[in-house]
Amino acid sequence: MTGRTLYDKLWDSHLVKQNTDGSSLIYIDRHVLHEVTSPQAFEGLRLAGRRPWRLDTNIATPDHNISTDKSERAAGVAGMVDEVSRIQVQTLDDNCDFYGIKEFKINEMGQGIVHVMGPELGATMPGMTVVCGDSHTATHGALACLAHGIGTSEVEHVLATQCLVAKKMKNMRVTVNGQLGTGVTPKDVVLAIIGKIGTAGGNEHAIEFAGSVFRDMSIEGRMTVCNMAIEAGARVGMVAVDQKTIDYCEGRQFVPKGEMFQRAASYWQTLVSDADAVFDTEVVLHGDEIAPQVTWGTSPEMVAPVTASLPTLAEQPSEEKRKGLARALEYMGLEGGQSIQSIAVDRVFIGSCTNSRIEDMRAAAAVAKGRSVASTVKQVLVVPGSQMVKAQAEAEGLHEIFIAAGMDWREPGCSMCLAMNADKLGAGEHCASTSNRNFEGRQGNGGRTHLMSPAMAAAAAVAGHIVDVRTLMGENH
Amino acid sequence: MKAFTVHRGLVGPMDRANVDTDMIIPKQFLKSIKRSGFGPNLFDELRYHDEGQPGADCSQRPIKADFPLNLPRYKGASILLARKNFGCGSSREHAPWALEDYGFNALIAPSYADIFYNNCFKNGLLPVILSEEQVETLFQEMAEKEGYQLSIDLPSQTVTTDSGHVFHFELDEFRKECLLNGLDEIGLTLEEADAIKQYETQRAQQHPWVFGAIK
Fold first, then answer.
1. Tell me: the pLDDT tens digits for B106-147?
2. Cβ–Cβ of B209/A22 closer than 8 Å?
3. Residue of A86, A104, A153 to mutate, testing the B interface (most B Cβ within 10 Å of its Cβ)
4. Dihedral angle sign, alpha carbons of residues A245, A250, A253, A255
5. CB within 8 Å of A220: residues ≥ 6 apart
6. Which of A10, A150, B41, B179 could potentially form a cystine with A146 if both were Cys, beta carbons 3.0 to 4.6 Å apart?
7. Strand A24-27 vs strand A15-18: parallel, antiparallel, or unpaired?
8. Chain B contact for A50, CB < 8 A?
9. Rounded to whole angstroms, how far apart are CA atoms B33 and B186?
């Protein structure tokens, strides 16, 4: 028998039933819920007279549309200014209370962006299947989970049956060996991968990220990478278990203790691809060649090293590519051939499920320390991913660095990543953003997003334009 | 769920690759706790000059006259002809809800993003996959003929043009059966309740830490 990949192992251990028509019934260990994609699922459950199959598998929190403003947040759900959003958050509270589902409410310690909260509480553990009505659920794959986003009908399906009807995906391995240079971060690695394989490159695949670059990376960094697997088209991104994974889990709220932990950990150590496992698709990048990355267009694959210039219409190989580029340049208000560092930014957003963990806060603070936001920049939002990240950052004094630099230190939530709350771009504004999508209108109607790492975003904030953070790192200030 | 067997209808275009679900239904409409009523806000930013607000009356809003689906010739379209990687990005099921609520019964494209593709089947919306060449043929025929219609037959898995092309398409057997019969997938899974319980019993012995943790 040939070896199995990590994905094969996770799939096999959750297979309830293999049907003759090629579909399978897969068991779900952890279901994470938030306010936006769950109300219709709970309503469906109620209309059909069904109840959740299991309660102790579900964990909920509001994150997508809540305010990050200190005074509005202090007033709780009742104080939410946007009435439509308030009803949605109240509906989540009501549904969780009615069924007895564990929810970390709006201002409770533990609340945060679903994909920051799950791992940091130990609600997601290696070897689990994890789903959530959110495409960035792949984040949890950093702990060697089989984790992916689902639609609302499937949220209802999981609530009612603890299973999903699924079809096995293909295996892709993205190997990045070598060593990352100074100022090059996990975000740059994943953007470089997307630049190489494109936004549809991982369609129908589960990606395993392998190689020394991921082995050397912290668990938080691996989460940043797995988070954006969906931007490469793959619903699932994973990193195999190593000692860092086990050390990360130990002691967290929902992780077993004592002998049970030892038993779990010895199982977790088997969650690696076998040496002779075969992948359907292999992709290789070299860590030493990756520079800080910036997106210049309206799709995450429209990305380039910060030192580069924008592509030109003349160099496009096909009419379709020319049309796509022309449309992106027009939307972004940029010209082909323009240098990336010449792009001025109006606002900066440091946060989102991609980059709002403690080490992201530290990386941004290291650049912001002793510097000031450029006078041409209207706003810099620094939004910690969770109450726990916020508390940790404040204990380290990071918030004082941000505030001293002229940045806004906010309450935890999804914020300007998708602009469902008041945090948004105005039409035509350019934003240096640590989020995951640069689609048209994503951060506000007419807004222009440039995806980059937290250190790069902080550098753009102080320079007033996109800049290579490495040039600031040697500076004495 | 609504069943799909055969459909003949007017074809409307979405002539660009990588159409994301933010474009299909922008974020502000995701605040709704309902599953219906998203049709007037389908492709909101491409369709209207102003910024759409939840609950606003769209009939009074200034439309972008050159957006293809706003042209009189495509009014009433029930089949959307699109390009590759349609529906990428966010997992929001509001995207197929909006397409369905607008009046689309089927989509035709060379490829779809995985989550979006899956979500369509839960809502009686058939996402047909044809080759890039076949899709290009349909785009050309549509451009040449006002009132261009296509026939889609799910049992035989074919798209037929009035000019005589018959294009075969593939889809999973399980999805086809559910769509043909409008089956309740949750009800089907619950018929496997014994198998699920048996799995849980065995798993609880192997990996007990997975159970009972969240209180």
1. 999 999 999 999 999 999 999 999 999 999 999 999 999 999
2. no
3. A153
4. positive
5. A186, A357, A358, A359, A360
6. A10
7. antiparallel
8. yes
9. 21
